[in-house]
Specification:
CATH class: Alpha Beta
Shape: elongated
Radius of gyration: 13 Å
Number of helices: 2
Largest sheet: 3 strands, antiparallel
Structural class: alpha+beta
Order of helices and strands: HEEEH
Number of domains: 1
Strand content: 25-35%
CATH architecture: 2-Layer Sandwich
């Protein structure tokens, strides 16, 4: 991985942390290329549990946009589940 790619993944991690909010912690961000598809993932702690959100796109920028969208969806789902759960 080049220095530029590592820096961009770091910025994606910062972006994900901002989307998740202060009560969550980003544990790691990663990228994989599968043929012509880019797969991004973010692992994070939220509501006392570890979670992972994954998204794909034709480019890293498209995958980042998809990751943002999926992360908001997952954050809402996890938050709601935590709110109504007995655990």
């Amino acid at each position: 991985m080049s220095e530029a790619q590592a820096q961009y993944l770091g910025r994606i991690g910062d972006d994900c942390a901002a989307l998740l909010g202060r009560d969550a912690a980003v544990l790691g961000v990663g990228e994989a290329k599968l043929g012509g598809t880019v797969r991004l993932f973010v692992r994070y702690m939220f509501a006392g549990k570890q979670h992972e959100t994954i998204a794909t796109g034709d480019t890293v920028v498209a995958a980042h946009a998809a990751l943002r969208s999926q992360l908001v969806h997952d954050r809402l789902r996890i938050g709601f589940t935590s709110l109504v759960s007995d655990e």
